[in-house]
Amino acid sequence: MDAKSLDELPNRVAEGTLSEADALNSIAETIYRFPVRFGLAAYDEDFQSEIIVLFLQKGAHLFKRFNSSHGLFHSFLYSFIQGLVLTEKRNKIKNLIEQNTVTEFMYEDDFEKPDKNLFAAEKTVHYAPTTHNTHIWKTLSKRCTRKEDVSTAKTALILALKSSYYIPLDAIDEVSAHCRLQSAELQRLIANLNSLLYTRIRRRNMIIKRRDNAYYFHRKYLLQMKYCNKETTDMEQLSKRYTRQTENWKNKNSDLQERRYRVCPTNKMIARLLGICERQVSYYITRAQKMVNGKCDKDDSA
Questions:
Q1: Each residue of 261-274: pLDDT tens digit?
Q2: Which of 17, 63, 207, 284 has the fewest CB within 10 Å, making it most exposed?
Q3: 282 Cβ partners below 8 Å, 6+ apart?
Q4: Which of 83, 101, 99 lies closest to 206 in space, CA to CA?
């Protein structure tokens, strides 16, 4: 599709002779076959494929945003593609910084590097001092006026710690307010727990990375099958690659649902952190399950 054909697309979409979806597919095919026209020649095929995927995701409002009084459509499209390039570069830099920051955090101070074997058993860890943490647990009884409130607060605290890796900041604030704690206190407890879960976090992140990588190639080969020159491309080989990566992507998604890849502190870890017995942790988890099922005695406490 040449520049003139591209310039005609907005009118064809407006007149109804061409759907937006078909127009976007035509543009995507043109980007795939002639990347030099859109300033993508300097980038490798992987990056070009990422830009095409982004274009198909974000191009829904392309024709509505175009104003013919400001110039030709192919010039507007070029600017739009370059905007996607800039966005993708920023995302890559941001992800790189985040990964480096997490790595530095995990290895700082006296934290021991894990074994290279991702599936090795968790190394023996050194628990944080529990004097202040024990104080937090005991003062819940003083901060909450009613017996029922004390049990509910302790239940909420145990559940928050049990989900330490997944709990969002706004939920931490809500639990802190409910337990009459400072948000910083609960954040410190959660950070202490998560520092003990490095091997599990790393193992899960590795599966996520492999899942994302498989999804990337799943989309890449799908685009190639859709837009490549079928006369000069080995479609059978391309189809095999697509099928393999699609299955790999689905398998990794299934793996992430398995118990072994969940990042969750043990009851023993929580008990040691708070300076209480493991039985109490189990008790409040069971109490929470009973509350969900409506079978809990509100005055129950331990």
A1: 999 999 999 999 99
A2: 17
A3: 267
A4: 99
